[in-house]
Design a protein that fits this description.
The chain has about 375 residues and is mostly helical. It has one domain (about 45-340). It is built from 13 helices and no strands. The protein has helices spanning about 1-40, 45-65, 75-90, 95-100, 105-115, 115-125, 140-160, 185-210, 215-235, 250-280, 280-285, 285-300, 310-350. The longest helix is centred in the C-terminal third of the chain and has 43 residues, at about 310-350. It comes from Chenopodium quinoa.
């Protein structure tokens, strides 16, 4: 009984990053639709991002203050500048472009382009020598091929829309579409730009966590600084619309609270913690789950139109992504095997050598 309990705890601890990332993708998929409903109701996306991250910072702050009081590094000017840039890439710039693109596209389209983040993150990791790429090995070819296939899928999504998939029945829920959805040029540009800056943020996360190993405090700083950056963008976007800052409707307040507490606080913490444990590529490998959930919900429940270009491009991106992940998994197997052999060699070298000492036989008593 005790052994089974210990094994269960070990298994849960090993699977914790996987569970966290599944929860992140489920929450993110749900967030697409409530934010789209709020935007169609008239909420400005930049105002939403500002309020959301203020709520997220308030939600994380008490935990960061008390739980990391002894482990939190001292804030220096250089560290603050780095966190400012980290917040800009993770919140101020990326999230604003990301949700602005939702005005011009659909949740299914936007979730499909998010699958480019693992590929872009891998390319940046190779550039900064966080990843290795050996084209003489099958795993290296798989990573390179997967990267090219994913980028081809991005081009399909961006350049080819195709006919809409015919609907066989009437969906139970209808979301009122805004006039912004007619613009299918600005939407892909904004969504792909947000994916590029998000990939840079994921790559930067590994460096920042090494110098500031306090994920809760880092999440708090990123939320508050990102909210200030977003407020600066918002003041330009709604300069002559002070009423845009006032929120009264239930859908607006619910979206801000859900986005702040769940996405900007809980999801942010789970992403940072999982990235610290498993690395940035592991975190991004769960993006296709979000796409699957969004497409199912969008088509069968909400009544979003699905276009053949988005489906073909999305499937192509996922195929390329898992080629990349297969190569990553093989890299991990080789790395673990090499480390094990090195450990065994070190143990053998440090073992004391046994010396055989021959003891001369005693002369017999007769002599």
């Amino acid at each position: 009984m005790v052994v089974d309990f210990i094994n269960m705890r070990v298994t849960c601890r090993r699977l914790r990053p996987h569970i966290f990332m599944v929860l992140v993708q489920m929450a993110s998929a749900f967030l697409y639709f409530i934010t789209e409903a709020a935007f169609n109701h008239g909420m400005n996306p930049h105002v939403y991002v500002t309020y959301r991250h203020i709520v997220g910072g308030i939600a994380v702050f008490p935990f960061a203050y008390f739980l990391e009081r002894k482990t939190r590094p001292k804030m220096t000017l250089n560290m603050f500048v780095e966190i400012f840039l980290y917040s800009l890439l993770g919140v101020g710039l990326t999230i604003n472009m990301y949700f602005a693109s939702l005005q011009y596209t659909s949740p299914a389209f936007l979730s499909a382009t998010v699958n480019t983040i693992p590929t872009l993150t891998f390319i940046l990791a190779v550039i900064f020598r966080l990843e290795t790429l050996n084209l003489r090995k099958h795993r290296g070819l798989a990573k390179a091929t997967g990267t090219l296939v994913s980028l081809a899928g991005v081009m399909v999504i961006a350049l080819y829309r195709g006919p809409a998939i015919r609907r066989l029945y009437e969906p139970p829920i209808h979301l009122t579409k805004s006039e912004f959805h007619k613009n299918w040029i600005k939407g892909p540009i904004l969504s792909l730009a947000s994916c590029i800056s998000w990939s840079i943020w994921f790559t930067m996360q590994g460096f920042t966590l090494k110098r500031y190993p306090a994920p809760l405090s880092l999440a708090t700083w990123a939320n508050f600084i990102g909210a200030l950056q977003s407020a600066a963008f918002t003041s330009l976007a709604v300069r002559h619309q002070p009423a845009a800052w006032v929120k009264h409707s239930f859908i607006d307040i619910a979206t801000i609270l859900f986005g702040g507490v769940v996405s900007s606080a809980l999801n942010f913490i789970m992403i940072v913690w999982s990235s610290k444990e498993k690395g940035p590529v592991f975190v991004t490998m769960f993006c296709p789950l979000q796409t699957l959930l969004v497409v199912i919900f969008a088509y069968f429940i909400v009544g979003e139109k699905l276009y053949t270009g988005s489906i073909i491009g999305g499937v192509t991106i996922i195929i390329g992504l898992y080629l990349l992940l297969w190569g990553k998994a093989k890299d991990q197997e080789v790395r673990v095997s090499t480390e094990r052999q090195q450990s065994l060699s070190a143990i053998k070298q440090n073992e004391p050598k046994m010396q055989i000492v021959t003891v001369p036989e005693k002369e017999s008593l007769d002599h």
